[in-house]
Amino acid sequence: MKSLPKSFKLLNLPIFFSCILFFSSCNNDDGVFDSEIREIVVDSSIEDTIVYVPVHNVKVPVYLSFPHGCTDNSPLPAVVVLHGSGGMWKDDDPDGRVMSSQFREWKELLNNNCIVGAFVDSFSGRGAVEKSGKWETPPENFKISSQFIRSRDANAVLTQLKKLKLEDGNSMISPANIALLGFSDGGTSVISTLYDTNSTPLDWEWTQSFNGKEYDTSSGVMPPEPKPQQGFSGGVFYYGGSGGYNYWGSSTCNSNALEKNIYQNYAPILFQIPVDDSLSEGSICLANLLAEKGRPVELNIYNGVGHGFDTDDNSQSKIARDKTIDWLRKILHMD
Questions:
Q1: Domain map of the chain by residue range?
Q2: Which of 122, 286, 325, 326 is 20 to 30 A (C-alpha) from 300?
Q3: More confident residue, 58 or 30
Q4: DSSP state string for 289-321
Q5: Which of 296, 69, 46, 326 is nearest to 164 (CA)?
């Protein structure tokens, strides 16, 4: 087997694809899959690029956006962005390498605040375009699970961001100042990523229920991976689901949820919840449940809007985005 270099350099190129950029995809012709997340040296003038991060023998594309004129502030904060059920690419075309308008807008918002953006495509590397049809039920659903797969993607990107280096050898990203931002299925993934695995009961069995049938670890359900030693600073949850197919136990709105739902977060969560969304009741219950458990949460509720309101052209979308940026700046120690 060929030896692989310990670090790679990102050149000042447009979104250009070659072995020098794709640290985990080199030597594919030789049947070699590099499962190690490696150090990357970032050219000082680079703007955007795409890298692949290895997660369980899958190459996960990550669109990296570097803010302009912010190198004097290094090391920089970063936000890992998790897309919803519709994916993150324009026209559902990952080969076009152009993100949808929603994520291009968020890229600009992060850039304007000197925050590195890491937009994670959890679908295309696993053969999915969007979470619909066969991808909504087992066994395919387990391949893109927002409870135990997409959280692994996020944690792998966290590790990769910590390994971005400037040309002088210093870290580009502040390891203590990396946050999460997720929408819909990506919001659900934010919750899963921030789960405090140290709080799991010793006798807990990881299961999920689909259409009245229960699945366990022998049929594809995976336990969450251990909480990182230095994890995320916090995360923003936009209109996701909170039930997890009973992954965490009882429904968050049940009267016994305090005892029977095990979910607890290890870092602050900002809930951005629209009133007119069938998922909102469970998410509000989760936010209240976590507050009752003494966990750090904030809850904003938006009237007159529904699921996906972040992309709507109305005042509530703008208000929510402003609140998100202000909250991110706070937990990323920028103010």
A1: 7-331
A2: 122
A3: 58
A4: HHHHTT--EEEEEEEEEETTGGGSSSHHHHHHH
A5: 46
